[in-house]
Amino acid sequence: MKTLTEAEGLEYGKRTHTYNSRKAQEIGKWADDQLNHGNDYQEIHMGLYRAYFVEGLNIGEDQVLLDIASQCGLPVDEVSEVLKSRSYSEAIDKDWEKSRSYGVTGVPTFVYKGRGVVGAQPYEMLEQLVKES
Question: Which fold has domain 1-89?
């Protein structure tokens, strides 16, 4: 994984643990939804990546997520409410259900017109997926 991320110019730290990312997914989904309300909170995705894959932080802990949100300029009170209420849990369940229907078995998975390619793939493989779909 380190070789692949370096090839793409992304940092990748030494990870010693795997943490539950469910709450982070909910925050990411909420941030995406905020685009519909005129707020661009897309920086949270890179913040979550950096926290987990570079810094090795536990993105399953509320305080870690609130700190990341703050560093990314998100309204911490709103993020805190999303975490407390778990208001995006159902949306994530639906995303996971959709992923299972596509046959997703790992990340990343790229889906185009009902066909998918699992795992980090070279550009040529993704180009082939698009051309053949």
Answer: Glutaredoxin (3.40.30)
Structure tokens at 123: 């550009």
pLDDT in tens, 56-104: 999 999 999 999 999 999 999 999 999 999 999 999 999 999 888 877 8
Q: How many CB atoms lie within 10 A of CB 64?
A: 19
Domain coordinates in residue numbering, the chain: 1-89, 96-133
Q: Which H/E stretch holds residue 109?
A: strand 109-112
Does the bond joining 122 to the residue before it have cis omega, within 30 degrees of 0? no
HSE-CB for 53 with a 13 A CA cutoff: 14
Residue 108 identity (one-letter amino acid): P
Pairwise CA distance, residues 78 & 66, whole Å: 10
d(CA 113, CA 102): 10
